[in-house]
Amino acid sequence: MRRRDVLTLAASAGAMFATKRIAAALPPTIPIIDSHVHLFDTARPGGVPWPEKSDPILYQPALPDRLKSVAAALGVVGAIAIEASPLASDNDWVLKVASAHPIIVGVVGDLVPGTSSYLSDLERLHKNPLFLGIRYGNLWDRDLAVDQQKAGFIAGLKALAAHGLVLESANPNPDLIRALVDVADKLPDLTIVVDHLPHAPVPTERKDRDEYQSHLRHLARNPRVFIKLSEIPVRVNQEVSLDPKFYRDRLDAIWDVFGEDRILFGSDWPNSDHFATYSDTLAIVRGYLSRKGTAVCQKFFWRNSLAAYKWQRRSPDQPAI
C-alpha cells in the first residue's frame, strides 16, 4: 500500500473541536456498510505480504472482532474486506475468515486476468456468495494500462462481468483513471468501483488537469462506475485536519461529477490508523454529509454499496431494500 502525499495546511484545535461536535450531533441512526476495510493476521505462520514488520501501527492482527470493537458503536453494521495480499491462497483465507463473522458482508479478492489459473479460480471463487470481485491497479507492481493489452486480460474481465462481479481499482492516479476509461468503454457491462479517489493526485499543469477531469466526466457517464470516498484524512504539517471544511472542495469536486447515486463510504481501516482513529475518520465524513439530508446519507452509507457490490445481508441489523 502506498504512502500518501503530504499537504501543506495545518489543522487547528478549534476545527478538531467543531468536528467532534458535529459527530455528536449526528447519532448513528443510519446503518453503515464500510465498503473498504482490510483483513490480515500478522500472527499467522509465515506472516503476511502486507503490512511490513517495520510498521508499528499496522503490524498487528486486523480481524473482524477488532473491527467490530472500534466500529460497531459508531453505527457500522457491515463491511467489505478488500484484498491486502497478492497470494492466490489468501482469497480463500479471507473468505474463510469472513464466513465466520457476519459483520463481513463481502470480499473483494486478488486475481490476475489472463493468467493460466484465472478462469478456474474465478469459477470456483464466485460460487461463494461472499466473493464480490477483484481489485487491480497501482498495487503489487501492476499497471492496468499496460496489462490490459496482454493476451486474455480483457477476456478475463469479460468473464468477471458475466458473473456479475466487480472490478475495483487500486490507488488511482491520472494514468489509472485513463486506463479505467479504456476498460469501461470496452466492457460497458462491467461494474467498476474506483477507490481512494479523494487522494488521487490532481495534475497541476492545466492541459493535464483538463484531460484528467475529462476522463472523470467520461467515467461518470457510465452508470456502472462507482466512486469510493476512502483515504480522506491527510497529514498537514505533522497534524491531521479533522475539519470537514478542509476537505469540502475536493469532495465536492467528486460529488458534482458522479452524483449522489454512485458514491459510497469506505474507511480504509486499519490503514487509516496512520492518520486518524476510526471515529475521527467517520466524523469527517458525517460532517461533510450533514448538509445533504437523510436520503442522501442512506445512499452514501449503504444503498450505493449494495447497488455496486450486490452484497448479501448476513445479520438482522444490516439494512435491506
Short description:
The protein is built from eleven helices and ten strands.
Description:
The chain has 321 residues and is an alpha/beta fold. The chain has a single domain (13-309), classed as Alpha-Beta Barrel (TIM Barrel). It has eleven helices and ten strands. It has helices at 13-25, 64-71, 89-99, 118-125, 144-147, 153-162, 174-186, 206-220, 244-258, 278-289, 294-309; strands spanning 32-37, 76-82, 104-109, 131-135, 166-168, 191-194, 225-229, 235-236, 239-240, 263-265. The chain has an eight-stranded parallel beta sheet. The protein has a two-stranded antiparallel sheet with strand order 8-9. α4 (118-125) links the parallel β3 (104-109) and β4 (131-135). α7 (174-186) packs parallel to α8 and α9 packs across α10 (278-289). The chain is globular, with a radius of gyration of 19 Å. It starts with 12 loop residues before the first helix and ends in a 12-residue tail after the last helix.
Give the tags:
single chain; 321 residues; alpha/beta; TIM Barrel; 39% helix
